[in-house]
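Could you join me in thinking about how sequence relates to backbone shape in a protein? We need material for that, and I hope you will provide a protein of your own picking. Once you have written the record down, we can walk along the chain together:

…
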Amino acid sequence: MEREMSLYRSLAEWMPLLTPASNYRLEASIYRRLFLAHDPQTRTVLELGSGGGNNAYHLKRRFAMTLVDHSPDMLALSQQQNPECEHILGDMRTVRLDRRFDAVFIHDAIAYMTTHEDLERALTTAYVHCKPGGQLLVQPDFFRETFRPGTRHGGTDGPDRAMRYLMWIRDTEPGGCTYTTEFAFLLSHVDGHVTVERDTHTMGLFSEQQWLDLLARVGFVGEIVGETLGEEEYSHLNILLARKCHC
């Protein structure tokens, strides 16, 4: 996480064409249901690694969202579509807000925790911001057991620009705790000219038991919950639900 990937810096303005907020409607409804199933009175939610705020765009209709991200460019995007939400620049491993929330949410940004130490630090941040009896919901892209190399593609057209992407997911450290995602972006600019960009992301990959052990180590009681968005490849959501003891 020390190196800022181009996608979250120089290419951040293209993010709405890469992943529009409308794509997150069904996914966010699952998170909302899980939060409320644990505690129907859940009101305040802290999201760590909130990115462009696509999940928050849907969740804010039910929860008071506080959004933390370490990229100023991504926070600026989120502020445009979520002006009602509180936005804070910070690293999920180290940020301390001196307050507690009904729930803490970490979406796929958790994948940028590539060592056990960094993952434990992020989970500790969640713990110290979670009220007694509150919950943590984490959604890593993969567990080691569910990891599958492959490719994805997509993108959308805007009113004056367009983006297409190819994403290549590779197991560059077989048996290890990281994998690599290679992006190729085809960008059609306002004046019609087209450029190509490449971006490489190193992502964390941990077993289900490693996740549960780390959650317990920082003070949560966790479980793995499976949800499916559809029949398409990579539509399965790997969700960890954890509860903080009443202490």
Observations:
- The mean pLDDT is 93.
